[in-house]
Design a protein that fits this description.
Helices cover 53% and strands 0% of the residues. The chain is built from nine helices and no strands.
């Protein structure tokens, strides 16, 4: 094969001169011509990108959407919920919330009970504090823990559990001072005045009961005929 690329011998050249190759024969006997790298490829007329044939294998199946059977057999991803579950959660969740009326009405009633036995200045200050409580509650400035503890405080106050109501007042001042500092002073004073009034009423009742019992046991004075 090498003899085809070597020209016939030249008598004028020496025996040790390098042979002269015939490049024209190499071009004729070579394989198919390659496209020069500097030559531009014309863009397709339809506007779709053309994929080189070398990058696609003839035996690979075309990529497409999975059949319905394979999609149905696939287990659901972690954290996902079925469609029926998602639809059932669209209904609003009703949360039981403490009403302002249930808290404010017993406090106002306790204030009215104390007006006859407490100074007007003290009662007016308590009334202003209760108005602040009402405004902050209506404007949504009070958190749910504060509302729940106030409901418990009112229950203890209505049941004459003064120590329990005072303990709830102190816990609110410690845990939620920024929310309750403007009006809790009035609630504290109302608890104290209501306790004092209740103590006076109990003392008067005991005194009246003792006087009635003494009158019943005291022997009557016999009058002369």
């Amino acid at each position: 094969m090498a003899e085809l690329y070597v020209k016939p011998g030249n008598k004028e050249r020496g025996w040790n001169d390098p042979p002269q190759f015939s490049y024209g024969l190499q071009t004729q006997a070579g394989g198919p011509k390659r496209t020069p790298l500097t030559k531009r490829v014309a863009a397709p007329q339809d506007g779709a990108p053309r994929v080189p044939t070398s990058e696609t294998s003839p035996g690979a199946p075309p990529m497409g959407p999975l059949p319905p059977s394979s999609m149905a057999s696939r287990p659901p991803a972690v954290g996902s919920r079925p469609a029926s579950t998602v639809d059932s959660t669209d209904f609003p969740v009703i949360e039981c919330e403490t009403l302002l009326e249930d808290v404010l009405r017993p406090l106002e009633q306790a204030l009215e009970d104390c007006r006859c036995h407490t100074k007007k200045q003290v009662c007016d200050d308590i009334s202003r504090r209760l108005v602040l409580l009402q405004e902050q509650w209506a404007e949504g400035k009070l958190s749910m823990p504060v509302k729940r503890r106030m409901a418990l405080l009112v229950q203890e106050l209505s049941s004459h559990q003064w120590d329990a109501a005072d303990d709830i007042h102190r816990s609110l001042m410690v845990d939620h001072v920024t929310e309750v500092s403007q009006w809790m002073v009035g609630v504290k004073r109302l608890i104290a005045e209501k306790r004092s009034l209740s103590s006076k009423e109990e003392a008067n009742e005991e005194k009246s009961a003792a006087t009635a019992e003494e009158n019943q046991t005291k022997p009557g004075v016999q009058q002369d005929p």
